[in-house]
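General statements about sequence and structure are easier to judge against a single worked case. When preparing material for the folding task, we compiled for one chain both its residues and its backbone structure tokens. The amino acid sequence and the backbone structure tokens for this protein are reproduced below:
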Amino acid sequence: MPQGSGWTENVLVKRLLFTLLALLVFRFGVHIPVPGIDAKELALFASQQGAGLLKIFNMFSGGALSHFSIFSLAVMPYISASIIIQLMTVVVPSLEQMQKEGGVGRQKITRITRSLSVLLALVQAYLLSAGLEASRGPNGGMIVLDPGLSFRLMSCVLMAAGSCFVMWLGEQITDKGIGNGISLLIFAGIVAYLPSSANTIIEMVKQNSGALLGALGIVAFALVLVFAVTFFEQSYRKVPIHYAKRLVGKRVMSAQATHLPLKVNMAGIMAAIFASTILAVPATFLSFGSSAGNVWLADFLPGHWLYNAVFVVLGMFFSFFYASIVFKSDDVAENLKKQNAYIPGVRPGSETAEALDTVVTRLTFAGAIYMNLIVVVPSLIGSAFSQQMTFGGTSLLIVVGVGLEAIRQVRAQLATQKYDFLIFPSQSRDTTTANNDTRL
């Protein structure tokens, strides 16, 4: 049934309100701790971690881990499971076949990913609870009031259930909200850190008036990074496409010239999230251990040369890997051939696929370099000038990238509203009047 502009506007408002409500529920759950924890000792322990596990995981959980909340794991198990399944899709024929089955196959892969997420959540929750039992606060006090198997099992059940709920909440935002639910939950967690980051800079200036110039430099550099991320995330390469004369129904369409937009950073924020997730593993062992054997793991923390080097390698790998998933040059070339379209100077079929592969490879390489620079350069500058970058490049990349995608989703809804009104103006007025009568 045709829908009018009034109906579309109401749907957009409902989607925005639903998204806001879901994010508020997530932020509320962040502050619900697992029973049996000394909150004061945990807070002191968290403040000593620096760039360790708590800081890395808090970027994804919105500070839940520093409270040992039921949402401590947040979407980390789901992200880890997604990485594993996507990597296995390349080497396991049955998973590759599922991916080619369309919607039904994607549903099967989604169910497998969810099941693996639950398993990983149980394992990660057990490791975190066991590590917290073995840790002590700065004053030597125990963080866990009653350590033992019962505490570990309770933590596993509560945190795994909390992670499943967060995963479900993200799916609801995707279905009933403005989309990209998992990314929006990560976005909400990072944005929640903005006030504390600003307060850190203010306190630094208060304690040392000479630090004002450094604080202004950090703010100016952050603005430059925001501009760079915004520019690259909205940059496209336009591949020219020509349509020959073709028969559509009973009409003969004349030749047309258009373009195929290819995003420069085709992997988006996913490459940075995947790389950060994998590099959080060494920090796990370092944060909950003090043995001499773990000293070498310190180089895997943000700001150290080994962390930056491994991040660049992982960032490049996941950029190309994710681009190969989201863009299938063979399928695009086949679709263009079926539509009697071609790239000027390139033959349809395999040569078109090769040409698109070349363009996508160059764009992905440029996008990977841009992404690595955004993440690594702030860390290098902070180390060179002995300034702590309270808002890292990964956080900035995620916030700006998700924010731009949310704006695109809202604009798409508004565009739908305008087109509905142009196509069905009388129905739009009737629907709006009916809605007003119903409200009365």
User: Anything to note?
Assistant: DSSP finds 16 helices and five strands in the chain. The beta strands are 236-243, 246-248, 251-253, 256-263, 341-342. Residues 350-384 form the longest helix (35 residues).
